[in-house]
Design goal:
6-stranded antiparallel beta sheet, alpha+beta
Amino acid sequence: MPETWPHEFARRMSQYTLGRPAGEGQVAASIKVRVTSGCFHREHSPQAYRLLDDEVRLWPRNEEQQFDLVEHESGPEILVYVAVATAGITLAKSVIDLVVAIVKPRSDGIRKGDKPSDALEVVVRRSIDEGRVDEEIVIRLGHLDRIDRAEVQGSILRALERLLREKGKHDRTG
């Protein structure tokens, strides 16, 4: 029997958490940058990925990298731990920088000749159990839209807060 998408996602999240045990107050989540239609990967968006690779190559190397970047045909996915505290949700600056570093080269790549030009969605999600995934579309950006880092960050954090609030409900009920 073929694996369903929620089971595949649960396995991917499980592999991420096995490789990096959570610290206190941390919850694993996914931030996906996907196209609304078509493909967004190296074969169809070579200019965007060349720009993204150049950008990421300049970042300082960190032994304790705080995320995994997984490439998919529909766009990259960032697996990350979210810090949950009484004061709210926090994400490492490098994670927000990576989201912006994915979205901006997509727009620039289209201007340099990449053909797929459908809008991108930033989506946050988490696995509730092996059969269910909670997800929320954070923001939708067309290739001509201005990319505002603060807006992207605020949108991601608000969506994560909503998803993690739901986690508490699921934890209490079962």
